[in-house]
Amino acid sequence: MCGIIGYLGPRKAVDVIIDSLKRLEYRGYDSAGIAIHNGKKISIIKRKGKISDLEEKIKENPLPGNLGIGHTRWATHGKPNDINAHPHKVGRIVLVHNGIIENYKRLKEKLTKEGIEFYSETDTEVITALINYYYKGNIIETLMKAIGELEGSLAIALITEESDNLLVGYRKDSPLILGVGDGEMFLASDMPALLPYTRRFIPLDDEELVVIEGKDYRIMREGKVINKKITVVNWDPISAEKGGFKHFMLKEIFEQPRAIGDTIRGMYSFEDRDFYVFKDNNNFDLTKLSNIRKIMLVACGTSYHACLTSKYWFESLARIEVETEIASEFRYRDLLNLDGTLAIFVSQSGETIDTLQAMRMAKKKRAITLGIVNVIGSTIAREADIVTYTHAGPEIGVASTKAFTSQLAVLFILTLYLSKIRNTLTVNEVETYYQELLKIPRIIENYIKQANREMEKLSNNFLDYQSFLYLGRNLMYPIALEGALKLKEISYIHAEGYPAGEMKHGPIALIDNRMPVVILAPTGKVYEKTKSNIEEVNSRDGISIIFTDDTNNELDDKGVYVFKVPTIVEPLKPFIYVIPLQLLAYHIANKKGLDVDQPRNLAKSVTVE
Ligand code: F6R
User: Fold this and answer.
1) 522 in a domain, yes or no?
2) Does residue 18 share a domain with residue 70?
3) Catalytic residue among 402, 488, 573, 604
4) Residue 115 CA from chain centroid, whole number
């Protein structure tokens, strides 16, 4: 986890680093630290807590200098405290790290025998000590030698006491981006962190080293300099700010019409009557997709819920066998050969380690791998056979919202694409569905303020409840899971999503007059069945909170609370029903005074197992 920044250029390094770290705080916020070279020596300030705490400390000790590194930490080895905070300094080496070194204990023992003393509990101090141990003046040779002994994942930024003109970065299995400015250079864990300074980036690939000296940089792999293309992004830096909302999460919920619209724009041409779905097919022969026999959808958390939703679409419209799997489980399966399988990996960050490793495994088993990611140039985007992007823009709130609906949009388009090439839908039918999808941003736009008002009011009634149930059938089952996940992760209220029909096999025992039960009851295929579930809740005095279509009045007196959402075609209902659930979770957490954007124990991008 963790976020890292490096800077070398004409500006005051401390200002650039603190400012950029704030945009990385979603990656971890247990402690923060900074190291600045002032031309003579390196000064380090670090402390437990958030970047604002670090800033306070810096005010007491201004740090002049044009070279520096900074870190915001999500603890893996060692408690969040001042000593374990990064940067770590051993001898002449100062370093920040994101990742986990699996053999650090063995290395620590070896170095301790050599007389080296350790002060922290971190694996990072061990990396620093190892590099310093080998360091005789040539940092590149030293780094290559030390890295050869490290097992695990690491992205590092490093400076040395000797030079105020040298910044070095390296990555393996954790993200690191080089930002190319005008006479200044940056390192960062992701691109949005640097948007106010540059839009020109080079994402490092695994086992690549970058050496920045003055205004020049060179990227090396296995000791040789390589050429890499600069990626220019057009993300608006303002969109990475809160834009008048109290929290990023609320802003991002309201951004969904824009995010979905940007994602689907240009993916189909009515003129050509054809799809333009894949942005990078890395020379992969797309005609092979006509012959796939099976789809596997793999992801974590909210992205997994998007996969689960799309399973219903792929099956019913593209008429293809589908398996969905949580990435951390998929990784450890004893898979057979996946020839003829399209394995789809969905990830907002494109860096989630379980999803990435699952993809690598599927590739080995000969699946065609497709990445659906939000972060351009992320590892999953680079390593998948084919890639398509959601254009949600930077998602800063730890709880995923706009990335989810954008993922749904891509997955629905992919369903239509496969339906077309497999001839399970006619071109006219495909176009009718696509037209319906195009209406979604406007429909959400028109509905979202009403939903916000309703959920804000409703939230007042549930601030001191301990537990919630969320029920849905068919397409509403993954949405029930997603509603429950949103509530538990930001409000710390226990919440369980359940297939409504499964309730009588256990969870019904929980229902009494202290149990709020959110029931998603759109009209359509399973409506009558869901009505029976509403009766089951009501007859046990559960506090039923029903969501149904605005054309349906039949349930008006069936719930303690009944809310209406816009009526749209059945397959697309997940886009609408998830909106009030995101808002309900937000308002409950906000009114409880919790840290909505950075809930405890969580981090935005889970790059450790
Ligand atoms: C929940 C949430 C997480 C992520 C999960 C996967 O709100 O944000 O459950 O969905 O960690 O992350 P990505 O999509 O980056 O792979």
Assistant:
1) yes
2) yes
3) 604
4) 42
Q: Which residues, listed in sequence order, are joined to residue 347 by a DSSP beta bridge?
A: 373
Domain match, 414 and 272 both = yes
- Note whether 94 and 151 are same-domain residues: yes
For residue 180 the two structure tokens come to 């190319």
pLDDT, residue 608, reads 67
Torsion of CA 582, 586, 587, 589, to 10 degrees: 140
CA distance 108 to 103: 9
Does the CB atom of residue 596 touch ligand 1 within 6 A? no
- Kindly state whether residues 455 and 430 are assigned to the same domain: no
Domain assignment of residue 605, yes or no:
no
DSSP state, residue 605? S
250-290 pLDDT, tens digit per residue, is 999 999 998 999 888 778 888 889 888 886 666 788 888 98
Any atom of ligand 1 within 6 Å of the Cβ of 383: no
Point out the least confidently predicted range of 275-279, 331-335, 358-362. Answer: 275-279
Do 78 and 84 touch, CB atoms closer than 8 A? yes
Same domain (yes/no): 216, 288: no
CA distance 8 to 107: 31
Closest to 289 (Cα-Cα) out of 429, 422, 434, 431 = 422
Residue 475 lies in a domain: yes
- Residue listed under structure tokens 């200044």: 184
Question: What's the CATH code of the domain at 325?
Answer: 3.40.50.10490
State residue 192's pLDDT score. 85
Q: Is residue 413 part of a domain?
A: yes
To test the ligand 1 pocket, which listed residue (357, 411, 490, 606) has its Cβ within 8 A of the most ligand atoms?
606
Q: Are residues 318 and 427 in the same domain?
A: yes
Ligand 1 centroid, distance to 322 Cα (angstroms)? 21
Question: What is residue 235's predicted lDDT score, i.e. its pLDDT?
Answer: 72
Residue from 190, 248, 302 to probe ligand 1 pocket by mutation (most atoms less than 8 Å from CB) = 302
Same domain flag for 20 and 157: yes
Domain match, 431 and 481 both: no
Domain boundary residue, one of 409, 438, 467: 438
Question: Per-residue b/e over 528-542, b at no fewer than 16 CB within 10 Å?
Answer: eebbebbebbbebeb
> Is the C-beta atom of 606 inside 6 A of ligand 1?
yes
CATH code: domain of residue 156: 3.60.20.10
How many structural domains comprise the chain? 3
The CA-based angle 346-352-355, given to 5 degrees, is: 55
Our answer on whether the CB atom of 352 is closer than 6 Å to any ligand 1 atom is: yes
Ligand 1 centroid, distance to 348 Cα (angstroms): 7
Residue-level pLDDT at 203: 93
Residues 263 and 58: their CA atoms lie apart, in Å, by 41
pLDDT (tens digit per residue) in 141-197: 999 999 999 988 899 999 999 999 999 999 998 889 999 999 999 999 988 899 999
For 482-499, what is the mean pLDDT? 97
Final residue belonging to a domain, choices 206, 241, 276: 241
Phi, psi of 158 (to 5 degrees): -140, 140
Ligand 1 binding pocket includes 101 (Cβ within 6 Å): no
Question: Residue 439: is its pLDDT beyond 90?
Answer: yes
Tell me what pLDDT residue 5 has: 98
**pTM for this structure?**
0.77
Percentage of the residues of the chain whose pLDDT score is greater than 70? 96
Q: Active site includes 2?
A: yes
Domain residues for 411?
Answer: 250-438
Ligand 1 lined by 98 (C-beta under 6 Å): no
